[in-house]
Amino acid sequence: KKEGLWLHVDGAIGGVFGLSKSTASLVNGISLADSITLNPQKVLGITKTSSLLLVAKREDLVSAFSTGLPYIEPAWGEAHGGEMGLQGSRPAEVLKLWLGLRQLGEEGIQFLLEESINRRSYFQKQIDSTKLRFISGPLHLIAITPLGVDVDEAAKWSIATRKELLAQRIMLSRPFHNGRHYLKVVMGNPHTELKLLDQLAKSLNESI
């Protein structure tokens, strides 16, 4: 605010945790943003694709993107119906979001969010901290890399271990963070069973 800068929050994965009172504190301050990216499909299970750009002030969105559509009669005074609202000749993507949220309800949303965190917490406790280092915040993601190896060895480990896990039908991503490769586990799938997390933790612990 002091510098007059636009604050954008990439909440594609974590922004939805602001929807429940029980988890909103984990994304405290997100309401200060001028714009927020959200992907409800990632944790709430909304049918793909469901991606949103939320803006604090509607007039900012209009001033940035409005081009005017002289060949279409405006639907209302403030914004053109062809640019704000249901778009002509395009699928009503918002219907998937509305139906999904309506089906889940507040209790269903809270359950999905809390359980994703519980899975990450459970899995984190299974990791052998004498062999593996992990990075995790308060949400449902955790990234893991081996201890006591250099950057090149960590890269080789991530490739080999990811391949072994794929053979077990477990898919982890392989991000590069602060000059080092990790394997990242995302706990957003509500159908993930604890026995699968036990299997994953065992494979990772034994990979070193």
Structural description of this entry:
This protein is 34% helix and 15% strand. It is built from four helices and eight strands, in the order E-E-E-H-H-E-E-H-E-E-E-H. The longest helix has 34 residues.
Produce the secondary structure layout.
Blueprint lengths: L7 E4 L23 E4 L13 E4 L2 H8 L27 H34 L5 E5 L4 E6 L4 H17 L8 E2 L2 E2 L1 E4 L7 H12 L3
Parallel strand pairs: 1-2
Antiparallel strand pairs: 2-3, 4-5, 5-8, 6-7
| Oligomer class | single chain
Radius of gyration: 21 Å
Provide the spatial order of strands within the biggest beta sheet: 1-2-3
Percent of residues in helices: 25-40%
Residue fraction in strands: 5-15%
Specify the number of helices: 4
- How would you spell out the order of helices and strands? EEEHHEEHEEEH
Average the pLDDT over all residues and give the rounded result.
Answer: 91
Secondary structure tally: strands: 8
* Tertiary shape: elongated
Derived structural class:
alpha+beta
Largest sheet, strands/sense/barrel = 3 strands, mixed
Cα(first) to Cα(last) distance is 48 Å
Regions with pLDDT < 50 over 5+ consecutive residues?
Answer: none
